[in-house]
Design a protein that fits this description.
By secondary structure, the protein is α/β, with parallel strands linked by helices. It has one domain (13-109): Rossmann fold (3-Layer(aba) Sandwich). The protein has three helices and five strands; from the N terminus they run βββαβαβα. α1 (48-60) runs parallel beside α2. It is globular and about 40 Å long.
């Protein structure tokens, strides 16, 4: 007996990603990547303070799933989570020492 695959239509996920990079400006260094299932807002930020601003901006745009790059340490992740509403889920990519931040954690830098 063969089973048919059912296609389940889902609403487009409003997602965000913030990466840390020296000299990045969250106000200009951002893009929207859209696929049928995901609208991904990608923002660059120079430090935790600007990352918080970017997270709040994305929240206002309707982002419900936010992922942080490996440069965010435990403290930086907590700052983002504290700054936005409880209905936004926060996840992280983990590096103990990020290669793009001179092999340091954002917690040590910001």
């Amino acid at each position: 007996m063969t089973k048919k695959c059912e296609v389940i239509e889902m609403d487009q996920l409003q997602a965000g990603f913030i990466f840390l990079a020296p000299g990045a400006d969250y106000q200009t260094d951002h893009q929207l990547v859209e696929t049928p299932g995901v609208a991904l807002n990608v923002y660059g930020a120079k430090d935790y303070a600007d990352a918080i601003k970017a997270a709040k901006e994305m929240e206002q745009k309707g982002v419900k799933s936010l992922e942080l790059c490996g440069g965010f340490g435990i403290i930086g992740t907590a700052k983002i989570k504290e700054a936005i509403g409880q209905d936004v889920v926060v996840g992280v990519v983990r590096f103990d020492n990020h290669p793009g931040l001179e092999n340091q954690s954002g917690d040590d830098l910001f």
